[in-house]
Amino acid sequence: MSRDCARRKTRVCARAKRGPIDPATRRNSRLDRIDRMPADPPSPVPPKAPKAPDPTRAPERDEGQGAVVAEKQEQRVEPPKLYQVVMLNDDYTPMEFVVLVLQEYFLRDLDTATQIMLKIHHEGRGVCGVYSRDIAATKVELVQAAAKRAGHPLQCIMEAA
Ligand code: TYC
Q1: 81 C-alpha vs ligand 1 centroid, how far in Å?
Q2: Residue 87 CA: which ligand 1 atom is closest?
Q3: d(CA 107, CA 128)
Q4: How far is CA 105 from CA 27, 83, 116, 155, in A?
Q5: Which of 102, 117, 128 to mutate to test the pocket of ligand 1 (most atoms within 8 A of CB)?
Q6: Residues flanking ligand 1, CB < 6 Å
Q7: Which of 49, 74, 146, 154 is the most buried (most CB within 10 A)?
Q8: What is the pLDDT of residue 93?
Q9: Which positions of the chain have pLDDT values less than 50?
Q10: How many CB atoms lie within 10 A of CB 143?
Q11: What is the pTM of this model?
């Protein structure tokens, strides 16, 4: 046995004689020294708080908060309500004037305007056209203004189609 080997054997025997290491009393072993290394110095920059999720952003993947639910909201746009402009008969407004009004404000050709005028004359009322609310209201105002200017009692109303 070499001298070096004999020295190592002596150290092993000494360790064996002292028995197993008691962690409570262990001091100055290499592990003990590592355990008592000073902690990292405090960082000058404080750790960032976790970012709150942007509520306007749709979740793209599971971010560890449970299942991702992609909610797709159907947007339904109701079609605009329609209103018909109805002209009423009277005994004084000249037939020609009614035909002219139907051509001017309801864009009817002469034949159609004449047919509508006659229908009103015979049945008491007739539909001049069907429009969205604002347009129907404007047509009523225009016809009444024209009748008033001309001095005729022509009446026209709007009602839900
Ligand atoms: N009845 C009217 C006449 O005989 C003509 C007329 C038609 C008037 C239609 C109004 O909305 C009307 N002169």
Answers
A1: 29
A2: 11
A3: 10
A4: 106, 15, 13, 14
A5: 117
A6: 87-91, 93-95, 98, 117, 120-121, 154
A7: 154
A8: 98
A9: 1-19, 21-43, 57-62
A10: 23
A11: 0.58
pLDDT digits (tens, 9 = 90+) for 83-127: 999 999 999 999 999 999 999 999 999 999 999 999 999 999 999
Position 152 scores a pLDDT of 98
Domain covering 82-160 assigned CATH 3.30.1390.10 in the classification: yes
For ligand 1, atom 12: residue with the closest CA: 89
Which pLDDT score, from 0 to 100, does residue 37 have? 42
The structural domains of the chain, with segments of one domain joined by +, span 82-160
β 125-132/82-88 pair status: antiparallel
For ligand 1, the distance from its centroid to the CA atom of residue 69, given in whole angstroms, is: 65
